[in-house]
């Protein structure tokens, strides 16, 4: 659930970056002087979206067996103990 919310935020940031890039192209075609600020905002949104996509991978945890848990906020599951009867 948490990983999905982080990826949803990344998708929204990427969409905002693309919309800002389209706005820049329209404003630049009409020779509006402050269109470069929209281009900077587009770049920031695209970089933020890229970081949010990488966040679960960068902060992944390893359990005792060396397996990677991509959700850093999930509790580590303990391996079932084998009881000899």
Topology:
Elements lengths: L1 H28 L5 H24 L2 E2 L5 E2 L16
Antiparallel strand pairs: 1-2
Helix pairs in contact: 1-2
Average predicted local confidence, pLDDT: 80
Tell me the helix content. 55-70%
| Oligomeric category | single chain
**Morphology:** rod-shaped
- Major sheet details: 2 strands, antiparallel
Strand content: under 5%
Q: How do the SSEs run, as a string of H and E?
A: HHEE
Number of helices: 2
How many independent structural domains? 1
Alpha-beta classification: mainly alpha
What is the strand arrangement across the widest sheet?
A: 1-2
Which residue ranges are poorly predicted, with pLDDT under 50 across at least 5 consecutive positions? none
| DSSP summary, beta strand count | 2
Write up this protein.
With 85 residues, the protein is mainly alpha-helical. The chain has one domain. The protein is built from two helices and two strands.
